[in-house]
Amino acid sequence: MTSIPVPSTPSPPPASAPVPTATYRLQLQPDFPFAAAERAVPHLAGLGVSHLHLSPVLEAVPGSTHGYDVTDHRSVRAELGGEEGLRALSATARAHGLGLVVDLVPNHMAASPRHNPALRAVLRDGPDSPYARWFDIDWRAGDGRMLLPVLPARLPEVRDRLRVSGGSLHLDGQEFPLRPGTEAMPLDELLDAQWYRLGWWRLARTELDYRRFFTVSELIGVRVEDPEVFAATHAKIVELVADGVVEGLRIDHPDGLADPQGYLEDLAAATGGRCWTVVEKILTGPETLPAAWPVAGTTGYDALRQLDGVFTDPAGADELADIYREFVGKAADRGGHWEATARRAAYEVVTHDLASETAALTRIADRICAADPALRDHAPWALATAIRELLVRVPVYRPYRTGGEEVLTPEAARGAKAAFAVPEEATAVDVVRDLALGARGDGLEHRAFRARFAQTSSALRAKSVEDTAFYRYAPLLSANEVGGDAGRPAVSVEEFHAYCLRIARDWPATGTVLSTHDTKRSADVRAAVAVLAQCPQVWADLLGEVAGVPAPDPHVAWTAWQTAFGFGRPDPERLGPAILKSVREAGLRTSWTEPDPGYERAVADFAAAGPGRIPLRAASEAAFALEPHIRAHALGAALAQLTMPGVPELYQNTEREYRALVDPDNRAPFAVGPDDDRTVLVRAALGLRRARPEVFGPGGTYAPLTAAGPAAAHCLAFTRSDTVVTAVTRLSLRLAEAGGWQDTELVLPDGRWSDLLDGVREFTGGPATELKLAELFADRPVALLVRTG
Q: Are the CB atoms for 355 and 384 separated by under 8 Å?
């Protein structure tokens, strides 16, 4: 690797990027390469999607089952079939009317010197390497060498296993390049002479001097904000776009980048507007996607939050939370209240897991203060405290180029200052806030601080909420999903409609999802769990029935049994690892880095003896009676997602009932399965979208429909472009308990309407014609009506 390639100039772009009607996500891996995807094309085309969405396709660590550990941007992954295989897949897809969307990973690469040639060059030649600019390495930290926290134990304990051979240093299958001229040195001198320092893996928490992905030291951050780095890391993708092989891009973790908007502008220019592009952006609460970003929208977690929430009963969710606190007792984190749990997790992550990141920010801030006469004499500890206190008060994932004042508010600053015992020291908060907002200068160090603060903020939010608090607070696990709000699981029908109206107006080509490779539970598992909010006492009784199976603590009992209920069938080989992962992520009794073997054995034994053995949904008549309501939730959410504004994505295998748990359980290779009532619904909705893109795509309209009568709140209905009506049942168990639909009616728009799900029934619309919902939902809990004539 001796030069940085420059991408070829693409041919003139079309007027606008093609917008898919629907996408289908495939998880590529050595066991499911391009050739296997090619064989699946006829089946997938038959579902009605317009594009296949492929997980990362560039070269990755050998054997990787996900592809996010990119090693070389110059080539398509050989284990998947190489570029020839990708182009063959594209040709086959195109012959069946399908295009390709590819997952692009700009933020990080594998920190594996053996497999990453750019990193290998840096380790060999140090800061003078032309590839040193690729990575955020602080050469001024420590002894001026890059820390590689890769040793299984302290260096003296593994020294005798180190070997020099072929110009490299070797240890247990790992390989490290040697600085030229050091090969013949005695081992201790050789180690000291390198541009890197081999260290125990535990040093990464506090001593790491390069930017990484979240807390994963095996993934090193890439500086795509540098034009030469961008060109080198995007040349192949730009070529594939220019050649028509790739028509869309999913941008992985844009919040990890120094300047997401700048990156997206560079990407749009490089691809010439040829790509439908969406970003994996997690929006929090009322937060919206920055309007200036040149993308079609998000990958759909904001839609997932709306879809899950509108099918969740708010009163029952509150009752479940009370039952949870009583059941778990002292085992609950901070008494089992969401806000306290999330805040405590944020403090733990920022001071423990992200200690290296906050130390890097402190070093930059200290250098800025030392060089500015107006800022001198702010102690490093005060700057570090201010950084920590402001980070935990960022209410969203990160501030951006504009709007930072709305995130780092004066109120947040006042809260941060309260952590200081001496008011004079608290002025460090003002310094840090100004630096994070770009109000203290525009030098290299100032820009570096602003970018790193934002990058660290996103890592903190992801690790403290998604990967910690969601596993510590468990009243209703269906709410603990990426982009979700565990403290407020439910969304009203009015909120759902308001969201859809805004999306139809502002982001009509954004993505929508129900299941992804990152969801902790598939949509079907979440649907089953969410039904428990309609019958909290049934859940409490079920827990009483299985109380004879001893659990290590009440929290793991609640979490494991609710996971098993959602999964629906005993399967120790799949439930056991998911339950073990949940207790490690929670970090209350054990963790990934400080495991408690005795506790973990107890968890495994409990999982095998209880949730992995007892069929909980068939354990009682009351639980078995919930199955129709689980089906109603699952079908209602599926139809709403497939017909609401945005581009729906089907995750692999979700065209039928699909029960999967947290990764890696949900990343098994794709396989064609038998059709069920979900498949009928999917083919009908997607076939309609593909046949009538003007109804659903940009330019199409969305309008709520409101039922009238005693059960009106249980109907979610809307029209698309006055041509299609979606009507689904929500909270069907509560509906049944209240006496059913009774005289509840829905007025359809004028005209004749045909039910696409059975092809037989027809209805008449207009203000003088009221459709009884008992009639509409007589055969199934959902209806998809199309205007006839």
A: no
Q: At what angle do helices 444-461 and 380-391 cross, to 10 degrees?
A: 50
444 burial (CB, 10 Å; 0-12 / 13-18 / 19+) is exposed
How far is CA 202 from each of CA 10, 40, 358, 682, 775, rounded to the nearest angstrom? 46, 44, 17, 48, 64
Q: Three-class SS of residue 145? A: coil
pLDDT score at 16: 62
Compute CA distances 562 → 155, 539, 555, 625, whole Å. Answer: 44, 9, 11, 17
In whole angstroms, give the CA distance from residue 724 to residue 727. Answer: 10
For the chain, how many residues are written? 789
* Tokens encoding 574: 């799949």
Tokens (6 digits) for 236: 């192949």
DSSP one-letter string for 152-216: SS-HHHHGGG-EEETTEEEETTEEEE--TT-TTS-HHHHHHTSSEEEEEGGGHHHH--B-EETTE
Structural tokens at position 351: 């001071």
Backbone angles phi, psi at 174, to 5 degrees: -85, 150
777 alpha-carbon distance from chain centroid = 35
Instruction: Return the HEC string of 304-356.
Output: HHHHHHHCCCHHHHHHHHHHHHHHHHHHCHHHHCHHHHHHHHHHHHHHHHCHH
Residue the block writes with tokens 């050789």 = 190
Token code pair at residue 246: 């790739």
The pLDDT, as a whole number, for residue 784 is 98
| C-alpha dihedral sign at 506, 687, 516, 611 | positive
Largest CA distance in the chain: 94
Query: Which residues have a Cβ under 8 Å from the Cβ of 668 and sit 6 or more positions away?
Result: 27, 660
DSSP of 707-739, one letter per residue?
Answer: -BSTTGGGEEEEEETTTEEEEEE-SHHHHHHTT
Q: Which two tokens stand for residue 353?
A: 């897991």
Token duo for residue 235: 């040349």
- In the prediction, which pLDDT does 5 show? 36
Structure tokens given for 481: 């999903």
DSSP characters over 95-130: HTT-EEEEEE--SEEE--TTT-HHHHHHHHHGGGST
Instruction: Give the pLDDT confidence score for residue 522 in this predicted structure.
Output: 98
pLDDT digits (tens, 9 = 90+) for 510-556: 999 999 999 999 999 999 999 999 999 999 999 999 999 999 999 99
Give residue 13's pLDDT.
34
- Tokens representing 787? 């205007």
* Average pLDDT, 10 consecutive residues per value, the chain (789 residues): 36 59 98 98 97 98 97 98 98 98 98 97 97 97 95 96 95 96 96 97 96 97 98 98 97 98 97 95 95 97 98 98 92 78 97 97 97 93 97 96 91 96 94 95 95 98 97 97 95 98 97 98 98 98 95 96 97 97 96 96 97 93 95 98 98 98 96 94 97 95 97 98 98 98 96 92 89 96 94
Q: Coil, strand, or helix at residue 649? A: strand
Exposed, middle or buried by CB within 10 Å (0-12, 13-18, 19+), for 447? middle
Cα distances from 671 to residues 30, 80, 513, 650, 653, in angstroms, run: 15, 17, 20, 14, 7
Q: At what angle do helices 260-271 and 227-242 cross, to 10 degrees?
A: 40
Amino acid sitting at position 753: W
